Amino acid sequence: MSELNQLQPNKLWSIFANICAIPHPSKHEQKISAWIQQWAAELDIECREDEVGNLFLKKPATAGMEDRKGVILQAHMDMVPQKNNGTEHDFLTDPIRPYIDGEWVTAEGTTLGADNGIGLASAMAVLASDDIQHGPLEVLVTIDEEAGMSGAFGLKAGWLDGDILINTDSEQEGEVYMGCAGGVDASATFALETEAVPADWESFNISISGLKGGHSGVDIHLGRGNANKLLVRFLLQATKQFGVQLTELNGGSLRNAIPREANASFVVAKDQVAALTAAFEAYLAQIKQNLHAVEPDLSMMLIQPEEFESMWSKACQQHILAALNGTPNGVLRMSDDIEGVVETSVNLGVLRCKGPKFVALSLIRSLHDDGRIETEEMIDSVFGLAGASVEFSGAYPGWKPSTDSQIMNLVRETYQQTFNKLPEIMVIHAGLECGLFKTEYPHLDMVSIGPTIKFPHSPDEKVEIKTVAQYWTLLTNVLANIPKA
Length: 485
What we know:
Elements: H1 2-5, H2 10-20, H3 30-42, E1 46-49, E2 55-59, E3 71-76, E4 98-101, E5 104-107, H4 114-128, E6 137-142, H5 150-153, E7 164-167, E8 175-180, E9 182-191, E10 194-196, E11 201-209, H6 227-242, E12 245-251, E13 262-269, H7 273-291, E14 299-303, E15 310-312, H8 314-326, E16 330-334, E17 342-354, E18 357-366, H9 369-385, E19 389-396, H10 406-419, E20 424-428, H11 434-440, E21 445-448, E22 453-454, E23 462-464, H12 465-480
Helix pairs in contact: 2-4, 6-7, 6-8, 10-12
C-alpha cells in the first residue's frame, strides 16, 4: 500500500489504500462499514447508520461559511468482485492489491474498486481535512449500489438536511453528469428435464475466455463480445448439426458486468466427434476474425472431461438455447436527444444451472421508462414462448436532467475557471443512485463528477492518477463556492 501513499492528494490516496485493504464486495459491506464508523469516531465526526446499513456523516461549516447551502457528498461503499481466470482471490477475506502502472493505478488480477472507492475516499478526505472551505457538510455512504441499489431504495426521509447533492460515482474527468439511465433486472427460469446418456456417447467441455468484459452501462456501446451469447450460438449450431446434448451451462458472474467467460458440458455420439471438432475450429476462427479489433485475446477450448450420466432432454435444450440466442443483448437504441448517448440496452449477464432449474439473468437500462418497459416486453415474449417463467425486479428510475440546475452551472463555471476550458455536460447510460434519492428528497439539486476510471466491473479496471488530482481540485473549489442559502 506504500505506493499509493506517495501519490497526491495524499490524504485521498491514503484513505483509498485503506479501503482496498478491507474486503467490501456488494452484499458484504459489514467490514468496511465498521471501519468507516471507527474512523469517524476517532476524528470526532458525527456518524449514524440507518436500518438498511447506509451511513450518514456530518461536519459543521468552516468559519465564515455557515450561511451557505448545505452540501451532501455521496458515494457507495461496495465494489464489484471480478477476477481473472486463474487468479486466487477471496473477495470476502482478501485485500485488493493495488499498484501503480505508469500513469494509472490498477490491481493484481481483480477489480480495483476505484468505482466507487475513489469517490468514497474523496468524501472522507474532505471530512478529515481542516484546510478546505465548505458550508454545512454531510456525507451519505450507501450500501449495495452495484448489486441492487438496496441502500438507495431504503433511504428514508428525515436523514438528510442538505439542498445540494454531489454524487462522486462518475468515471470520466472533464464530464459533468446531470442525468442517468434507469434499469430493471430480468430473470428467466426454466425447469430442466434430463434423460440418461447413451452408453457409446462421448463427453466434452467447452469454454470461452479472454474477453474484456466491462461495465454493462458505460461499456455496452463498445461492441465487446458477450461470452454467454457467443457460446450459446455455437451450442445451438452444434445441436442442429451434430445432435449434441448439454449436461451443464454456466456463464458470467454479475448481471451488470459484460460476461467475460462461459462454459458448458455436453455429450455427443462418437460418429459425430470429428465433424464437431472441425466445426468448433471453424467457429473459433470466424468469431476471432469478427472480433479481432475489440477482443484480441479471445480464446475457446474443447476438452474431454469425465463421463456424464444424464443430459438435458432435446426439447428442453432446444427451448433454452433458442431463447438465449434470440433474447436481445447490447445496444438497442441510441438517444435522439443527446448525441452519442445510449438510450436503451440489455446485458445477458449470467447463466446458471441451479439443481433442477436453469436461470438466465439480464439487466435492462434505459433513459426512458417506456424504453425499459418495451424491452421488458421483448424479453418476456422470447422467454415466455420458450416456456420459462420470467420475473422483473429492482426497477429503479432514471435521473431526469434539469437544465436550470444551480449546482450543475456552478460546477461548469468552476471547471472553466480552474482548468481554462469547458467540461462536457453529459447524461450517462450507467445507473446512478441519484434518481432514487429524488423519491424521498425531491428538492435536491444534484450533479455527478469523478476522475477517469477505465474498464470498471472488470479485472482491467484502472484509475488515471492525474485525473484524481484534477477531480479533487474541482471538488474542493466547488465546495468553497457554494452559494448562500
